[in-house]
Amino acid sequence: MNAPLSNSALIEKDQAHMIHPLHQNAAHEHGKVWVRAEDSYLYDADGNRFIDGLSCLWNVSCGHGRQSIIEAVNRQMQELAYCSSYNGSSNRPAIELAERLSEICYPSINNFYFTSGGGESTDSNFKLARYYWKAKGKPDKTKVISRIWGYHGVTFAAMCATGIAPYWAAFEPRIPGFSHIPAPDPYHYPEPEDGSSLGVAAANELEKEILAQGADTVAMFIAEPVQGAGGVIVPPDDYFPRIREICDKYEVLLVADEVITGFGRTGKLFALDHYGVEPDLVQFAKSITSGYLPLGGIGVSDEIAETIRGGDKPWMHAYTYSGHPTTCAAGLATLDFIADENLAGQAAEKGAYLLDRLHAELDGHPHVGNVRGKGMMCGVELVEDKANKSWYPPEWGVGPKMTRALIDQGIFTRMRNEVMCIAPPLTTDVPVLDDYIAGVRAAIVEVFGE
Questions:
Q1: Same domain for 209 and 358?
Q2: 3-state secondary structure at position 37
């Protein structure tokens, strides 16, 4: 029997045949081939162990190797692996998952459409918003407003809403009708000159943009309750209540992108609950199956759902794998695990510990500009000059240097160049969090000095 191939040998085969998400040759030359995972750890093909510092891609919230989810998938595949959910067909797991979601989601959201992931969920909401406003006799309401540093996926339409410019460059021109307002970033947003709070001033950017675009042309505002891939930007507490007021005033749908924040990550099952606000539409993915199988979806307010059901034209939107019985079975088992283990409560408690310890260990470093977070998602922003909050120039390579240094410390996560994203599984034990924090500090010292 041949010995298993080493990490470097597998990477050579990978380079010969695979095109990766966000493909960059330099990144994969020294990449990792993962062969095993357990709890909060990943193991590469050489047997090296790493803390899973980002729950893979913010999604493995339950940790790796949960047998209850694996067994639920196995049972469903033996019984009914797949069937269509097109009009006239359904299946028990999809029905039960929609019913379960109605019990835990926002009170006014009780109807759900399933997709294969976050990007499909974003596009589904774009199309639903257009369908809704046409049904309401306002067909000119088609435009989408989102935020700088917002991430909503990279299907073509979702990419246009994503407010991170490097995702656009190779694919211009973008679809017309998308615009972006500044993020409610307490670290960088300028002090309001009119005496209003930072949160209200940042929210008022939406009103300015609606008026600039024309209120009768704006269909929706889409926002992550806490911006994730854009650098873990936590808004002030008064931001979303003001956003809700503005959306109501101008008849603009408020869409909560909870692809990262949903199902406990921030310490609540759904993150707008922190701010006492309900959206008109919500989208989710990632943690609905803890990443074990691809599943996403959108939740629709009762009023919008009635508009769909009462319309004289069908909602001609469909995916082959919408309502996939096996992925929905994984979703049901994951929701059971989240409830049984009180993962939202764990995220709140452990997240507070994680943030406190990061502050204690890092605030004094001359190149740590800002430490922030909510629940089990934190960001560490690295700066060249702490006094003026300025970043190192891109060619200095903060992101690649920190990524390598973190790997040296046995940690695998992602950087938004100057911001380290920290989001381990919600089940991560405190001693592992301590190791994570120590490794983060050591990596910063390795790159920037004491």
A1: no
A2: strand
Are 51 and 136 within one domain? Answer: no
Q: Name the DSSP letter for residue 287.
A: G
Task: Let me know whether 386 and 414 are in one domain.
Answer: yes
Q: Which residue has the tokens 């294969």?
A: 116
Taking the CB of residue 124, how many other CB atoms lie within 10 A of it?
A: 25
Whether 17 is in a domain gets the answer no
Residue 281, strand partner residues: 255, 300
Residue-by-residue DSSP string for 145-177: EEETT-----SHHHHHH---GGGTGGGPSPPTT
Q: For residue 240, give the CATH number of its domain.
A: 3.40.640.10
> Is residue 49 domain-shared with residue 101, that is, in the same domain?
no
In a domain? residue 9: no
pLDDT digits (tens), the chain, 450 positions: 677 899 999 988 988 898 888 888 777 767 899 999 999 999 999 999 999 999 999 999 999 999 999 999 999 999 999 999 998 899 999 999 999 999 999 999 999 999 999 999 999 999 999 999 999 999 999 999 999 999 999 999 999 999 999 999 999 999 999 999 999 999 999 999 988 999 999 999 999 999 999 999 999 999 999 999 999 999 999 999 999 999 999 999 999 999 999 999 999 999 999 999 999 999 999 999 999 999 999 999 999 999 999 878 888 999 999 999 999 999 999 999 999 999 999 999 999 999 999 999 999 999 999 999 999 999 999 999 999 999 999 999 999 999 999 999 999 999 999 999 999 999 999 999 999 999 999 999 999 998
What tokens does 218 get? 């704006």
What DSSP string runs through 257-282?
E-TTTTTTTTSSSSGGGGGT---SEE
Domain co-membership, 281 together with 368? no
Residue (of 242, 284, 231, 271) closest to 100 by Cα position: 284
Token reading at 440: 């983060």
- What gap in Å lies between CA 49 and CA 71, rounded to an integer? 26
Q: How many domains does the chain have?
A: 2
Does residue 213 lie in a domain region? Answer: yes
Both tokens assigned to 42: 């990943």
Q: What is the DSSP letter of 346?
A: H
Which residues, in sequence order, are bridge partners of residue 42? 37, 50
Q: Which residues of 2-21 are buried (b: 16+ CB within 10 A; e: fewer)?
A: eeeeebeebbeeeeeeeeee
Same domain, yes or no: 97 and 148: yes
Q: Please tell me the distance from the alpha carbon of residue 48 to that of residue 37, in angstroms, as a whole number.
A: 11
**Helix/strand/coil for 140:** coil
* Element (DSSP H or E) covering residue 298: strand 296-301
